[in-house]
Amino acid sequence: MKFNPVSFIAKLFDNKKFLMAFSLICAVIFWLVIDITENPIREVTISDIQITIKNQMDDNQNELKVVSEYNDNLSVTVSGPGYIVTTVKKEDIIVTVKPSTDVNKPGTYTLDISATVNVTDCNVVKLSQNYLTVVYDYDTSAEIPVEIDTSKFQEMLPQDCEIYRSFLKNDADGTELPTISVTGPSGVVSAIKKAVVTPIIPEGTAPGSQSLEGTILFIGNDDKTAVDASQLVYNTDTLVRVIVYKVADVPLKPTFTNLPLCYSSLEGGLPPYELRRYNGNARANEVLTHVKVRGPIEVMDELVKNGLSLSPIDFMKVKADNTSFNVSFVLENGVEIVDGTEEITVALKLGSLRTTTVEIAPSKIKFIGLPAGLTASSSLSKSIKVTVCYDRDKTTAAQAKSGIVLTVDCTGITTPSSVTKPVTVTTSSNKVFAWANSITPAETVVEIK
């Protein structure tokens, strides 16, 4: 049978599925023809286009940069042939930001925004923002004085404690920081008067000297307003050191050198005495036993327990007409007297004192501290003269003379030699209330064999 094309095509059009497919293809072709030939203009909006602002140079060649916040996202509406404009991407948009006036010093400026599209037959018709208002400034550095706010810390301390000193320190090496180095916009930096640092007090912090983290608040030149520190660069690796001292009434304790056995053997190891100080308001001496002292807590606890030592009195200077001595305080580092007392008078209560003289032969010297196998002798040929002070109410002159003992300490000598040593006066018994005021000669050459 011969193929009949007309009949074949007629049969195709009788097929509904073919007819539907053929109609769809024709519709698409017709739409494309119309779209291309008519070429309708359309608009599309492209969002999230980044705005970049260039830094400027001022008249002093300082680099000016934008230090204020601004909206750096731009939306651009582009028009063009429909079949082209839909292909425009972010990368095809060129945004230009230009100051409306020359930027030659720090200040507020208006920046004009324009945009072009790098696609043929397309144009920018609208921007989400046509200008920006920004602040230009240059970075500078300054040393900002530090002030420590310890008011909250003081509230947690007992009444007998106080903050002696507080300061900011570098956490790495402990260096004290009287200032904080900051870098930032000149307008911000120049507006800062001081940095107030407040220690952060963790719950359960013991009331004593501490090294704590702190918050830093920059205060403006009006001494009130806080300065925004978000654009500042500064060292945050710091700690607040708070030194706490205790204030207490501390008992006073006289000290002596060459204290005779009769008094060192008494309960308390001291002779009878009375402490006095001059009261300028009353213009008279007053008796006291304690003074008000301030110092580190651990040191103060020891002083309250054991007493504050006074500068030593040489008992060889004690005699009938000399029983009162003005002395000072023996203070450790960081300890100070806070009640105004500068000097103490130690008045010894020793009864009726008399003076006598005794001469003792060099052969009577006792040599102590010699190792076994060695002997010692004095090179002196004449008697040693000792001026003796004694308490007549407890010891007679004869007892005072006979109770005097001369000694030479040879501790440390291990080989035969000839050395010069001081001669020391002691007493034979603690029942002898006597002591030396002077000894002549005070030294002797000791022959060690």
The whole-angstrom Rg is: 50 Å
CATH superfamily of the largest domain: YbbR-like domain
CATH topology of the largest domain: RNA Polymerase Alpha Subunit, Chain A, domain 2
Provide a count of the helices.
Answer: 8
Content-based structural category: mainly beta
Give the strand content: over 45%
Question: What is the CA–CA distance across the termini?
Answer: 159 Å
Reading off the top of the CATH hierarchy, the class of the largest domain is best stated as: Mainly Beta
Explain what this protein looks like in three dimensions.
The protein is mainly beta and 449 residues long. The protein folds into five domains: 5-38; 42-137, RNA Polymerase Alpha Subunit, Chain A, domain 2; 140-246, Beta Complex (RNA Polymerase Alpha Subunit, Chain A, domain 2); 254-348, no CATH class; 353-448, RNA Polymerase Alpha Subunit, Chain A, domain 2 (Beta Complex), CATH 2.170.120.30. Helices cover 15% and strands 45% of the residues. The protein is built from eight helices and 34 strands. Strands 10, 13, 16, 20, 21 and 24 form a six-stranded mixed sheet that branches. It is rod-shaped.
